[in-house]
């Protein structure tokens, strides 16, 4: 193992830069050269490779986003595009690819592995919805970011006795909503995995009033119902006036929480350790609080 290429792919996740640093740190110890392809899988196709060194990764380990940048690239689902990617990586003498990303990126990594090219995937998505892993880079930061904003909202809400419906990210997953809802003491948390009715939401607001709470807070995951639609439904069916708020990309922004930095560095180091032992065709994960790996074929 002499030369590896890394991509960050899909939605950016705080902790991706820490993972790049972890990879480079361990690779440098092992005399392995590291290159990054810019903007995810498309960077491989466009042969847009940049050398990654301690000098250009260390300063960013504490910074959110991804210095390699990322673009969603649906064309990568096509077999011919995947084959081209493998040919290009071979042409550039890359011995392995490390993919840092979410669900869709994992699928791409699994497909490339079918061409017998060595691939390791590192879980990174604020949604924390990748099969098999208890944690993914960015999740802890997104939960903290959303909680911090709702905490700010709470002081003004309490002063006016307002009702807020706050929408957090999670297209297919209620993971962020569940954690945030708990952290802020939401009156109700709505997630895509569980059906709900407007009546139940109104009942939760009735209870909040009965309990003399100074304000009410409903947290909804974007994949369950938008806060604008929910606001309309509540106002149509009750006497309540509701203030909707979409938290949006602020959840993915800013610097990684400590947990994501540490996890990022550890994932990066483990990826290189495993490649060195010729273990690939795998996806790293957190299981029982420890890092281990599943076969990438699980993600086809
Ligand atoms: O990265 C996951 C995620 O943040 C989802 O929670 C959200 O639905 C989506 O990405 C937003 O993607 P984009 O930034 O491409 O609009």
UniProtKB/TrEMBL annotation:
Cofactor: Mg(2+)
Keyword terms of this UniProt record: ATP-binding, Cytoplasm, Glycolysis, Kinase, Magnesium, Metal-binding, Nucleotide-binding, Transferase
PANTHER family, per the entry: ATP-DEPENDENT 6-PHOSPHOFRUCTOKINASE, PHOSPHOFRUCTOKINASE
Protein name stated in the entry: 6-phosphofructokinase
Family: Belongs to the phosphofructokinase type A (PFKA) family.
Listed InterPro entries: ATP_PFK, ATP_PFK_prok-type, Phosphofructokinase_dom, PKF_sf
The organism's place on the tree of life at top rank: Bacteria
Subcellular localization, as worded in the UniProt entry: Cytoplasm
GO biological process: canonical glycolysis; fructose 1,6-bisphosphate metabolic process; fructose 6-phosphate metabolic process
Function as written in the Swiss-Prot or TrEMBL entry: Catalyzes the phosphorylation of D-fructose 6-phosphate to fructose 1,6-bisphosphate by ATP, the first committing step of glycolysis.
GO molecular function: 6-phosphofructokinase activity; AMP binding; ATP binding; fructose-6-phosphate binding; identical protein binding; metal ion binding; monosaccharide binding
Enzyme class: transferase
Domain Phosphofructokinase, chain residue ranges per copy: 3-275
UniProt-listed Pfam families: PFK (PF00365)
UniProt catalytic activity: beta-D-fructose 6-phosphate + ATP = beta-D-fructose 1,6-bisphosphate + ADP + H(+)
Organism, as annotated: Pilibacter termitis
């Amino acid at each position: 193992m002499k030369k590896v290429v890394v991509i960050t792919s899909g939605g950016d996740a705080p902790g991706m830069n820490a993972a790049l640093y972890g990879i480079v740190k361990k690779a440098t110890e092992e005399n392995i050269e590291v290159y990054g392809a810019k903007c995810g899988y498309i960077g491989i196709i466009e042969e847009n490779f940049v050398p990654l060194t301690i000098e250009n990764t260390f300063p960013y380990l504490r910074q959110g986003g991804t210095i390699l940048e990322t673009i969603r690239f649906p064309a990568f689902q096509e077999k011919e595009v995947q084959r081209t990617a493998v040919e290009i990586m071979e042409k550039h003498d890359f011995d392995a690819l490390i993919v840092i990303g979410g669900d869709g990126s994992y699928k791409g990594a699994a497909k490339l592995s079918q061409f017998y090219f060595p691939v390791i995937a590192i879980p990174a998505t604020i949604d924390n919805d990748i099969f098999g892993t208890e944690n993914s880079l960015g999740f802890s930061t997104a939960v903290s970011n959303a909680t911090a904003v709702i905490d700010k909202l709470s002081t003004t809400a309490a002063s006016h006795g307002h009702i807020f419906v706050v929408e957090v990210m999670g297209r297919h997953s209620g993971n962020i909503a569940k954690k945030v809802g708990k952290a802020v003491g939401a009156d109700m948390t709505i997630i895509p995995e569980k059906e709900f009715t407007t009546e139940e939401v109104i009942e939760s607001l009735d209870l909040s009033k009965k309990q003399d709470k100074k304000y009410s807070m409903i947290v909804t995951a974007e994949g369950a119902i938008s806060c604008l639609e929910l606001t309309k439904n509540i106002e149509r069916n009750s006497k309540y006036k509701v203030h909707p708020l979409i938290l949006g990309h602020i959840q993915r922004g800013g610097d990684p929480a400590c947990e994501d930095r540490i996890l990022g560095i550890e994932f990066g180091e483990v990826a290189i350790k495993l490649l060195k032992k010729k273990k690939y065709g795998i996806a790293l994960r957190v299981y029982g609080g420890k890092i281990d790996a599943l076969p990438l074929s699980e993600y086809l």
